[in-house]
Design a protein that fits this description.
579 residues, alpha+beta, H-NOX domain, Beta-Lactamase, five-stranded antiparallel sheet, 21 helices, 18 strands, 53% helix, elongated
Length: 579
């Protein structure tokens, strides 16, 4: 397959057209073409801008494609650029004289087959049919080459459409009836132009071709085209922006959980999003207008009148964003919901409504208020002093008992709790506070002045979720006093029981000892005296052993001595002793 060439007049036309409309895109148009041509970038641009050199056809076709798709994004760009190129180009004296001699587009069309055979490198054949003074059918066959495309048909159309301008006539109308690159054997173009009278032909022959008039017409057309392009581009931008805003609006309104509706000046619903239908259960066809909606939403006449009056008052206020109001609304399934309404103006004729179902939120707030009231009642009724502190150690709340124990004037919101302690205990309080902030529970006993005496308190401090610290002070002064008295009574009981044991255990040997001593005063015989003396000795030994057992008591063990009275059990209380 041959590699056809084309004139750089064509590439010059592409570069000039892009430079006039997108001058910053010229480097993008020429990018990589130096490698295709084997030249430097500067040599490539100089060659492609020259009006009379020859280059491979594929380079020109690639430039057409880039201008049409990448830079101008205009499918008719090849037509327009070649229309201007043929119009503005200075053909030189010989070609200008040739055009003068032709006299009209029809004469030039008759000579076209010879011109194609002489000069064209891409056209195989061109012939005309149905030729008249005002139009014809042009038949074009192209030489086979993969780089040729419909762009080449458009350049041909643009060039022949501008030819009448050379004689000062309006451009020709060219319509493509079939394209060789669309499966047809040839490209067929229907061409129509303003007929040339003999007067116009003679004037053109003697006065010359009106190239200035042609340029003026093209400049006017180009200026008009540029204005149209600018308006078209602005329109496209506005259309894209509008479409984007519509997409955003649709995505926003159809995916938010809030109900949304737009209402016109007559109260008709212009739009209701799906969330509103899900929230209340009414279909769009059931709503109608605001009046019909209120009849469904507020079956109670008094409540309906209240809602209507609130709407009227808000509209009369002149505010762009209306007041937020909460109403209980009847749903399609018969249930009631608490709904927060927000309203505002979209324009002078349209308003918007935003609806939020706050039924669960209000119920949760009510439960929270009841819990808070119950908790406050419990705290206020507690006999213990309770302080609620934040993470900075400042008082959030104190019950009545705390105000009775601590400085009532110091127990105000925001007061540092450490300031309530005596100066000598503040270092201890700081250590305890750091301990509690680590998530540990602190339990201490603390003495504080109160009611004219030092009172003992049991302190319990714990940190809760969210950084809240609860401190509980329980007055254990009375309990401590009772404990001391109990210990004193226990000691006294031990003494009593020990005394009872001593009286019980010592009573028998002492009684025997007294009896033996009295018997000795009655006996005269030596034998009797000796016997009583031995008995006294035995009783003394028993007393010694009892005293020894008392000294070996190591545990507290008792036994019943008399009904309701107990004594120490020496056998169990005294440690065993081996002689």
């Amino acid at each position: 397959m041959s590699n056809p060439l084309t004139s750089t007049f064509n590439t010059m036309a592409v570069i000039s057209y892009v430079r006039r409309r997108r001058p910053e895109a010229v480097p993008r148009l020429l990018e990589g073409l130096d490698q295709m041509l084997g030249l430097s970038p500067a040599e490539t641009e100089a060659l492609l801008s020259h009006p009379g050199r020859w280059i491979p056809m594929e380079v020109y076709c690639e430039m057409l494609r880039r201008a049409r798709e990448d830079i101008l994004q205009d499918p008719r760009a090849p037509y327009r650029l070649f229309f201007e190129a043929v119009t503005f180009h200075n053909w030189g004296p010989l070609k200008t004289l040739y055009l003068r001699l032709m006299g009209s587009p029809g004469s030039l069309i008759r000579a076209a087959p010879w011109l194609v055979r002489r000069f064209s490198r891409s056209l195989d054949r061109l012939w005309a049919s149905e030729l008249t003074d005002s139009g014809c059918l042009l038949h074009i066959t192209w030489k086979p080459h993969p780089s040729l495309s419909h762009d080449n048909c458009l350049t041909m159309m643009g060039g022949i459409a501008s030819l009448p301008l050379r004689w000062g006539s309006p451009p020709a109308q060219v319509v493509e009836e079939q394209c060789a690159f669309g499966g047809h054997p040839a490209t067929v173009l229907r061409m129509a132009w303003a007929p040339h009278t003999w007067r116009l032909r003679l004037r053109g022959m003697f006065r010359g071709v009106n190239a200035g008039r042609a340029r003026f017409l093209v400049d006017s057309l180009n200026e008009h085209a540029r204005q149209v392009e600018l308006l078209t581009e602005q329109s496209r931008k506005m259309s894209r922006a509008l479409a984007q805003e519509q997409m955003r609006f649709k995505a926003l309104t159809e995916n938010i959980s809030l109900g949304a509706a737009f209402v016109d000046a007559q109260g008709q619903f212009l739009y209701c999003n799906p969330a509103m239908e899900r929230m209340f259960g009414y279909e769009r066809s059931q709503l109608g207008d605001l009046h019909g909606w209120r009849g469904l939403a507020y079956p109670d006449p008094e409540r309906r009148k209240e809602a209507e009056q609130a709407w009227v008052d808000d509209l009369a206020s002149g505010k762009k964003v209306l007041n937020q109001r909460t109403f209980r609304v009847r749903c399609a399934d018969g249930s009631d919901k608490d709904v927060l309404f927000r309203a505002g103006f979209l324009s002078e004729e349209e308003k918007f409504l935003l609806m939020e179902d706050i039924t669960h939120r209000l119920a949760a707030e009510q439960r929270l208020k009841r819990s808070e009231a119950l908790m406050r009642a419990v705290l206020e009724g507690s006999p213990d002093a309770v302080l609620v502190l934040d993470r900075r150690g400042q008082v959030l709340m104190a019950n009545r008992a705390a105000k009775g124990v601590l400085d009532a004037e110091g127990l105000v919101a925001g007061k540092p709790a450490l300031d309530l302690l005596p100066p000598e205990r503040r270092a201890w309080g700081q250590s305890l506070w750091e301990w509690v902030l680590q998530g540990k529970v602190a339990r201490e006993e603390l003495e504080l002045p109160g009611q004219g005496e030092q009172r003992l308190f049991e302190l319990l401090a714990v940190s809760l979720e969210g950084g809240v610290v609860i401190i509980n002070l329980r007055d254990i002064t009375h309990r401590d006093r009772l404990e001391k008295e109990r210990q004193k009574a226990a000691r006294l009981t031990g003494v009593v029981e020990l005394a009872g044991t001593a009286a019980h255990e010592l009573n028998q040997p002492l009684t025997s000892l007294l009896a033996s001593s009295e018997m000795m005063g009655m006996y005269q015989e030596v034998g009797d005296l000796k016997r009583q003396a031995e008995r006294i000795r035995q009783d003394a030994l028993r007393l010694a052993r009892l005293v020894e057992r008392f000294g070996r008591i190591v545990r507290y063990e008792t036994k019943e001595y008399l009904p309701g009275r107990r004594i120490i059990d020496l056998d169990k209380a005294a440690a065993h002793h081996e002689d």
